[in-house]
């Protein structure tokens, strides 16, 4: 009997390596013929060595020209027509939209994990209508939608008229063996806050920088460290100036954040939108307190006053208050909150939960073929 072919689609190889490794290797273990489709990267060899196939292509991950991106639909169409997958699993916004259209044209079952909702209501009417059309084109034929938060579920189910089967998942989950609990920094060490993410307004970098300035004026020994790449050049000069003044430290992109999470006391995640934030999940798994905006995709990972603090999105005054509240907690309370954060991850966000849901849906869909 021929093996069932499963293709996984993403915009970058590290998406597979960081967030889907457990599922991919489980599929290989179960006897599926697994192919990864994305631009070539240095993590692909890891999967090929473990029995996966790879099909590479080029794409502009952040371009917003739909006419230019029509080429991507043709690329996916050719890959799928030649490879004849029994099922496609797609991840990240651009990949899921265009691979979904290709799957519909070829009548191939596919599972969508969007994790990058752009709400039509947040844009001018023309852009909003275009987004709605693209969501319908890309998702209407899906065999299952995997929703990472309640807002994403409600918006997309409304657009799709509640006609597509769906499952709620805790984001990508977190690998609890990889992100082990780490002993809290010593009480004598200066309190350190991490920022992890692209340096772009919607990820809350502006709020973080304002907060750092205000807190350092009162607590000069506090450290604010930024990990990530510049997505908007406007922040390059600003961060450089704040570095010279000793307000923030810029540590660039780190492919392995674990050593830097272990040195921190807490993470500040002031993002304006998330699917389900891995920043909070990974810091929490290692026993660090999380201070985050109260939006879907962040708030699910934080229990107020138990594992961290929430503040209204874009409200810098509330962010500063939350940071100051954390600073003034007794050391033992900080440690206890970090341990509670780890326990929450064990209960609710173990990556095995996500893997098991995917296996259930894959078996359900393939049994119908």
Automatic annotation (TrEMBL):
GO molecular function, one term: glycosyltransferase activity
Domain Glycosyltransferase subfamily 4-like N-terminal: 6-117
Keywords: Transferase
Domain Glycosyl transferase family: 183-343
The organism's place on the tree of life at top rank: Bacteria
Signal peptide: none
Pfam families reported for this sequence: Glyco_trans_4_2, Glycos_transf_1
InterPro entries attached to this UniProt entry: Glyco_trans_1 (IPR001296), Glyco_trans_4-like_N (IPR028098), Glycosyltransferase_grp1 (IPR050194)
Name of the protein in its database record: Glycosyltransferase family 4 protein
Organism from which the protein derives: Parabacteroides distasonis
Lineage summary: Bacteria, Pseudomonadati, Bacteroidota, Bacteroidia, Bacteroidales
């Amino acid at each position: 009997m021929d093996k069932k072919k499963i293709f996984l689609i993403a915009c970058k190889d590290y998406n597979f390596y960081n967030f889907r490794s457990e599922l991919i290797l489980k599929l290989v273990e179960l006897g599926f013929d697994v192919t990864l489709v994305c631009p070539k990267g240095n993590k692909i060899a890891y999967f090929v060595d473990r029995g996966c196939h790879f099909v590479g292509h080029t794409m502009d991950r952040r371009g917003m020209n739909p006419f230019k991106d029509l080429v991507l639909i043709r690329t996916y169409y050719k890959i799928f027509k030649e490879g004849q997958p029994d099922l496609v699993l797609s991840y990240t916004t651009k990949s899921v939209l265009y691979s979904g259209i290709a799957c519909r044209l070829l009548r191939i079952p596919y599972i969508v994990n969007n994790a990058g909702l752009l709400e039509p209501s947040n844009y001018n009417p023309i852009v909003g209508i275009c987004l709605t059309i693209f969501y319908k084109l890309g998702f209407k034929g899906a065999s299952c939608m995997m929703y990472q938060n309640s807002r994403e579920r409600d918006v997309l189910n409304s657009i799709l008229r509640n006609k597509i089967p769906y499952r709620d998942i805790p984001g990508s989950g977190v690998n609890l063996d990889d992100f082990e609990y780490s002993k809290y920094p010593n009480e004598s060490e200066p309190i350190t806050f991490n920022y992890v993410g692209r340096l772009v307004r919607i990820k809350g970098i502006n709020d973080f920088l304002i907060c750092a300035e205000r807190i350092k004026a009162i607590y000069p020994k506090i450290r604010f460290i930024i990990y990530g790449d510049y997505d908007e050049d406007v922040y390059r000069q600003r961060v450089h100036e704040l570095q010279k003044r000793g307000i923030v430290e810029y540590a660039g992109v780190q492919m392995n954040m674990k050593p830097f999470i272990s040195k921190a006391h807490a993470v500040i995640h002031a993002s304006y939108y998330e699917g389900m934030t891995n920043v909070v999940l990974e810091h929490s798994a290692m026993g660090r307190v999380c201070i985050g905006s109260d939006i879907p995709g962040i708030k699910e990972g934080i229990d107020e006053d138990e594992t961290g603090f929430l503040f209204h999105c874009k409200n810098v005054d509330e962010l500063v208050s939350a940071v100051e509240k954390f600073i003034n907690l007794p050391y033992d309370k900080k440690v206890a909150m970090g341990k509670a954060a780890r326990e929450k991850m064990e209960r609710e966000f173990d990556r095995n939960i996500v893997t098991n849901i995917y296996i259930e849906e894959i078996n359900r869909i393939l049994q119908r073929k």
